[in-house]
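FORM 12-B: Structure-to-Sequence Request
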């Protein structure tokens, strides 16, 4: 049990920071916990941000834990207060409101910024947005009111969902993706082609394998000459971890803040968790992984031995008429299968129906899957990936030949 005299400060109240605070209390930490965030809202389901664009939900509906619920656990959450600078030697944080607070233990759960590609002319473009926080979604919704055309840059999960919710506002949407297929980090070429056909039937228009030339007021020009007219532009081109505070502290940083399995940095008393961390050369960009690392950090900061297993990465696409789950190691480029390190089993492929079910097996165990379209055995397959179950057992249970 940690003594009441100790002070823990958590910078960030996204899912990683919130999970860490709760895990500390659940692990018996009795000291003071203060979480500061520059956002106006406490932790919310960031995966549902596109729904704010269409007004399908309000921010109040997607808040996970209200401030008063944190207060009931003796966790103080300060909203709209940004951490401007940190001092490792003095163990202090200077906040945007001019206040300085001290800490005994510090968690950097600062997350990431949306990445804005260096598109020539972007500074002259009105109504150019990224989508990372609730305020971004609200700004996009306001800008789209009464407009007719939108251009979305980025064909990943977030870009597709943002495009979909812009269509619900009545805008015609064109989507640009630099890769030759949609969702290149979640789908293989076959799955990407089937998803593309499914969405084109719903009126989506895609420009795949496209390279951006310049952005002006009212149009996006692609290399090769095509010009896409838009009243609103939304960029979903990945994220860049927030490392500025970590670097001020002298924390070791690569692509992210380097941590050990207990979320400790190389700076005494400083931990990190969420989208901003790097462990054993790997980074994660999913909501579930951020929550996992937050739980892990909270237990570690409370002095408990961490024994949590990392769940497989999983992605769901939430569009009307589309049912998609990509989970685990799905060998998207076919490299593992080509090298004999894995085998792929396509148990259903009906492009006209928008169906593609693929299971990947490595070492005899199920390690990944792509499930596009209704799959009666979907829950069993998802569980098999999570538990790394033997393929021969799973195949028998779901009724497919090996």
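FORM 12-B RESPONSE
SEQUENCE OUT:
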């Amino acid at each position: 049990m940690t003594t009441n005299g100790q002070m823990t400060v958590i910078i960030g109240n996204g899912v990683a920071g919130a999970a860490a605070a709760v895990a500390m209390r659940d692990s018996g930490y009795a000291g003071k916990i203060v979480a500061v965030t520059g956002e106006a809202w406490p932790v919310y389901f960031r995966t549902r941000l596109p729904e704010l664009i269409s007004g399908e939900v309000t921010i109040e509906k997607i808040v996970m834990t209200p401030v008063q619920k944190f207060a009931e656990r003796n966790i103080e959450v300060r909203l709209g207060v940004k951490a401007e600078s940190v001092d490792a030697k003095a163990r202090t944080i200077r906040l945007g409101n001019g206040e300085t607070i001290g800490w005994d233990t510090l968690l950097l759960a600062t997350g990431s910024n949306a990445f804005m590609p260096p598109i020539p002319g972007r500074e002259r473009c009105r109504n150019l947005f990224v989508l990372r926080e609730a305020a971004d979604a609200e700004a996009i919704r306001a800008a789209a009111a009464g407009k007719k055309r939108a251009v979305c840059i980025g064909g990943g999960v977030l870009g597709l969902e943002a495009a979909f919710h812009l269509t619900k506002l009545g805008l015609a949407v064109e989507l640009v993706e630099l890769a030759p297929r949609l969702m290149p980090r979640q789908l293989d070429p076959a799955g990407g082609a089937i998803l593309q056909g499914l969405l084109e039937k719903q009126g989506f228009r895609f420009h795949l394998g496209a390279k951006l030339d310049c952005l002006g007021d009212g149009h996006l020009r692609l290399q090769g000459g095509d010009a896409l007219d838009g009243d609103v532009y939304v960029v979903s081109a990945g994220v860049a971890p927030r490392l500025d505070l970590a670097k001020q502290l002298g924390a070791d940083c690569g692509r992210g803040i380097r941590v050990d399995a207990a979320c400790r940095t190389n700076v005494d008393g400083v931990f990190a968790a969420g989208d901003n961390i790097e462990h054993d050369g790997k980074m994660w960009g999913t909501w579930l992984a951020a929550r996992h690392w937050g739980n892990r950090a909270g237990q570690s900061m409370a002095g408990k031995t961490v024994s949590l297993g990392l769940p497989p990465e999983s992605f769901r696409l939430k569009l009307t008429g589309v049912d998609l789950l990509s989970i685990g190691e799905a060998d998207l480029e076919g490299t593992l299968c080509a090298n004999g390190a894995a085998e792929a089993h396509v148990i259903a492929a009906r492009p006209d129906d928008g169906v593609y079910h693929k299971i990947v097996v490595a070492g005899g165990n199920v390690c990944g899957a792509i499930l596009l379209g209704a799959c009666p055995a979907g829950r069993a397959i998802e569980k098999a990936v999570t538990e790394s179950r033997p393929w021969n057992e799973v195949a028998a249970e779901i009724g497919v030949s090996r």
